[in-house]
Structure to design on (587 residues):
């Protein structure tokens, strides 16, 4: 029992000898904000800290944001210049370290030097540019005084805004809040006399960690000089360099393409185009499509197959959805065009039958590539110019513009909303420009222009702009004429109108204009699927199934689908508001 009394006595003596320690806190945070006529502000913060070497060992730090979210996913930058830093009335060592989130962290104190326990009064003065917001008829300062990321409680916060001139209190609008929910029940504000030159705010209860004081002061325009258009554009470019480089680069690419088109891409004037019943001489159906598009697409190949079938060179057979091309040989059929002869030689080398399946992928691919080369050799250069080098120049400019936008975005800003805006604007604009001018930069030669006029005249005949020849106004002869020009109708995308013309001509001759279905089942196309097509569907459906079959036969299985089917760093956060914010703590 005596030992317990002695131990208790020793503990009591030691406890009594220990100094009483106050909890660390920010005892007072006072901010004086002076609004200047050029829209900048000077902020003088007086921060009274209670240090007990828990968090506050060497001093305090203050986080100050320099970048904010602007309208339409843009960024607004407000540079900060630190003017002076003191502790207890004496200059205090300090240094600044930029943070990844657009903050700067101002460390006050020295590494390795501990400050005494007790009360310390820090004064920080800094200048912020471009801080006043310009509304239609009023100017506004929206400022987060303390920031909402203090790790210590702020026992009392106050702020005084020095206005840019004497303003009637009736013309001043003010508001203030704490925390992110806009709570204002802990704030008092005090206005001055009849011609107010300042507005004051103060809290009536402590702010716990991660709560801050935010204020808004709004006054009529005319007291602050508004920046001109040039200044605003310069500031926007400085704040959003990646976006501006992307948009400026896109404009440069557009100008380049426009000048290129004016120099080499303008088509010769059209001649007098009239509907004509005869196809162009020395131009195959596939050649007509290739020339009209000034480029290749899969329908060129299927059009050539239909033309070869119409001429009696091959049969198209279908069984259970699988298509086979059967070559009839080089005799007993109409002469083939040069590009069609290339298909015959490449596709039916050492065989008379080719199934359009993966087993013949290499054979069909070689035939398609040889066919493309034949078309390019026959028509490009003589009938039209691709002007590819001019296009590739624009493509390189597009890549440079996009790369510049990305690099500047990476250098100037971390990943944020401005990146999203940069990509949402630059990439679609550049893709659109390249796709549009890839087509426009091509131009027919004068010879090609005359052939294109002939092709257009024949297309108008197929579409019904010329009467059906009288000798073909019966079902047999009309079917022969339909079969003769079917490949051209498919190539020129006039197959539906061409079928309608056949039905109308036959009905006019045999039924007095009454509508009835006209059958068309050529001997070169065999299969249950084709037999089910009516006349209006025939050309379009045949072209579609052949394109699908050729695609399946030329595309590796891995692309067509083998499974079946046909095709924590340190972050100080930022407390709400349009300016100010950040926070602080001890270090």
């Amino acid at each position: 029992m005596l030992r317990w009394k002695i131990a208790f006595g020793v503990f009591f003596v030691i406890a009594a000898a220990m100094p009483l320690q106050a909890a660390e806190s920010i005892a007072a945070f006072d901010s004086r904000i002076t609004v200047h006529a050029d829209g900048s502000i000077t902020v003088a913060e007086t921060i009274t800290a209670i240090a007990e070497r828990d968090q506050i060992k060497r001093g305090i730090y203050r986080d100050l944001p320099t970048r904010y979210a602007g309208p339409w996913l843009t960024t607004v930058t407000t540079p900060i210049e630190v003017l002076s830093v003191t502790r207890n009335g004496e200059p205090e060592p300090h240094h600044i370290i930029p943070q990844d989130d657009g903050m700067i962290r101002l460390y006050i104190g020295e590494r390795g030097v501990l400050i005494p326990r007790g009360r310390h009064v820090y004064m920080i003065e800094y200048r912020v540019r471009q801080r006043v917001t310009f509304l239609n008829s009023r100017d506004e300062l929206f400022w987060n005084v303390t920031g909402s990321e203090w790790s210590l409680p702020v026992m009392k916060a106050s702020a005084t805004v020095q206005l840019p001139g004497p303003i009637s209190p009736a013309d001043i609008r003010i508001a203030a809040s704490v925390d992110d929910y806009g709570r204002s029940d802990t704030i008092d504000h005090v206005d001055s006399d009849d011609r107010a030159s300042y507005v004051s705010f103060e809290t009536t209860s402590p702010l716990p960690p991660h709560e801050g004081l935010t204020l808004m002061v709004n006054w009529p325009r005319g007291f602050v000089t508004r920046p001109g258009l040039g200044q605003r554009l310069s500031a926007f470019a400085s704040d959003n360099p990646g976006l501006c480089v992307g948009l400026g680069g896109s404009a440069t690419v557009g100008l380049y393409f426009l000048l290129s088109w004016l120099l080499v891409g303008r088509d010769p004037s059209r001649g007098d185009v009239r509907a004509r019943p005869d196809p162009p001489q020395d131009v195959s159906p596939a050649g007509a499509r290739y020339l009209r598009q000034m480029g290749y697409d899969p329908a060129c190949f299927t059009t050539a197959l239909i033309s070869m079938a119409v001429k009696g060179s091959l049969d198209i057979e279908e069984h259970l959805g699988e298509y086979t091309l059967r070559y009839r040989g080089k005799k007993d059929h109409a002469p083939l065009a040069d590009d069609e002869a290339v298909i015959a030689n490449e596709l039916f080398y050492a065989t008379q039958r080719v199934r359009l399946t993966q087993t013949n992928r290499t054979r069909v691919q070689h035939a398609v590539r040889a066919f493309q080369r034949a078309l390019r050799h026959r028509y490009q250069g003589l009938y039209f110019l691709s002007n590819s080098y001019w296009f590739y120049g624009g493509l390189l400019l597009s890549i440079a513009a996009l790369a510049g936008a990305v690099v500047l975005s990476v250098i100037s800003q971390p990943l944020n909303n401005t990146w999203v805006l940069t990509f949402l604007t630059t990439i679609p604009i550049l893709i659109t420009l390249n796709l549009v001018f890839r087509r426009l930069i091509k131009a027919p030669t004068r010879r090609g222009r005359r052939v294109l006029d002939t092709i257009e005249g024949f297309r108008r005949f197929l579409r019904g702009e010329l009467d059906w020849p009288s000798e073909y106004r019966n079902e047999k002869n009309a079917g022969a004429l339909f079969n003769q020009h079917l490949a051209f109708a498919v190539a020129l995308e006039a197959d539906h109108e061409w079928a309608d013309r056949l039905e109308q001509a036959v009905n006019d001759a045999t039924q007095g204009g009454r509508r009835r279905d006209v059958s068309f089942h050529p001997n070169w196309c065999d299969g249950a699927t084709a037999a089910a097509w009516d006349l209006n569907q025939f050309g379009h459906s045949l072209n579609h199934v052949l394109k699908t079959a050729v695609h399946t036969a030329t595309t590796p299985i891995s692309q067509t689908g083998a499974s079946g089917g046909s095709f924590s760093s340190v972050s100080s956060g930022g407390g709400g508001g349009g300016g100010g914010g950040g926070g602080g703590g001890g270090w």
About this structure: The two ends are 47 Å apart (CA to CA). Residues 4-8, 10-20, 559-577 have pLDDT under 50 and may be disordered. DSSP finds 15 helices and 24 strands in the chain. Residues 241-265 form the longest helix (25 residues).
